[in-house]
């Protein structure tokens, strides 16, 4: 079987934002090719030989993704992709944004990421895929078994790590958590392992449902401890009704700033008085508009943290 291969030219600085847009359009995976020098920590995690003569970093990134002409609405998906790229241009430099189209033979590309996803640490937490074994010296750590499948979220990205560090501060026994844009379920599962009593995750992508289900089983999370809702909390009354009001001690939202802004009123309704919302996915310099939106919704800023070019803003009702 032949796959349609699409090769998108963008900038290294826009990789994360563009990939997020691709996921929103129904793209199930993307391969990144750039010339960013690897850190020592990344080299240690990769278990592959590093070329001794790296190319000069030119700031360009190529994103490859694939569609199945027999199953996918290729024309419809690509119309959405092009429309999303144009929207991104309004507030973000995505570079050329050009697309090359070709065909490729059927390969197990959707599972190829497994060759490179190895166990790693977030401070004292071990994140490990199901196909690796926990070493004896790690058995006393908090261990997160995570297989993202085709839903975004392994814990490697700075935005997720910022959220996890805030969860360690604010989650305690009895915490009720709402995780907006739950993806693989990583934040909810971490919260439950930290002692939270219950978690509700929302997501726009139906692929999140099997990913969350698999990760719950891998981590021994009871079925009724973590509920999933597919839909948009911002403007879907049914989702809002199901989520409830004044119901959560902690809300997490690892989403782009332009989504966090309209999300704030829904967050304020969902939080209990005194509850906190941990936001991330905010590029440095965009945090003021998230704070302004939170304040307009009746929330006040508590803390801002940073990792690399990404920011996390914690606000409280």
Automatic annotation (TrEMBL):
Key words of the record: Cytoplasm, Methyltransferase, Ribonucleoprotein, Ribosomal protein, S-adenosyl-L-methionine, Transferase
Entry's family note: Belongs to the methyltransferase superfamily. PrmA family.
A Pfam family the protein falls into: PrmA
Protein name: Ribosomal protein L11 methyltransferase
EC numbers for this chain: 2.1.1.-
SUPFAM superfamilies named among the record's database cross-references: S-adenosyl-L-methionine-dependent methyltransferases (SSF53335)
Reactions performed catalytically: L-lysyl-[protein] + 3 S-adenosyl-L-methionine = N(6),N(6),N(6)-trimethyl-L-lysyl-[protein] + 3 S-adenosyl-L-homocysteine + 3 H(+)
Biological processes per GO annotation: methylation
Localisation: Cytoplasm
A GO MF label: protein methyltransferase activity
PANTHER family according to UniProt: ELECTRON TRANSFER FLAVOPROTEIN BETA SUBUNIT LYSINE METHYLTRANSFERASE (PTHR43648:SF1)
Keyword Cytoplasm: yes
